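Re: weekly structure request thread

Next one in the queue (176 aa):
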Amino acid sequence: MPDNVLTFRVNPDSEFYKKYFEAQEERKAFRELAKAFFDKYEIDGSYYHCQHLEVKFQDDAVRQKFADQMCIKPDNRGFYRFKKKSALNHEWMETVTSQVDFKRLEQCELWFLDVMMSGTYSMWHMDGEIYGKVEEGHLVALQPASYMIPIKLSEYYAAVEKAEERNKAMRGESGD
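Done, posted below.
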């Protein structure tokens, strides 16, 4: 494996492991609250995890319905931010974000900075194991953080394949 690539599992006895799953619980609660909010207002789009309501609309007619409550132009990702004092943003803050602990939700989001400054990274979990991969953009040897247990690239990709097969099975897709 090249020095600028690190694949790992997270030590289940580490504080990071505990915080990762706490963040996952908070993220799940946020998604459920956001889905209920979007269903209530028949918003077909995606949201961004933040205190104020930001929506990337799928349907222009729905966007037009709320146009007077939003900033005129979307950001560079295509999300429209609702005005701070708009009725919908106020309700979003009351019914969704006030119920979410953002410190807990975001406590592991910058984990990759423990290892590198630029490059690509991923972290995911399956069967109580947390897997990760970082690839430094420069040819710099990576040192694992204290909560990381380095694994071979082949072990990492075997876990990826198992996760993909499981996801296909859950969606009812054939592996052929």
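The chain has a mean pLDDT of 91. The chain has two domains: 5-14+106-171, 24-104.
Next request, please.
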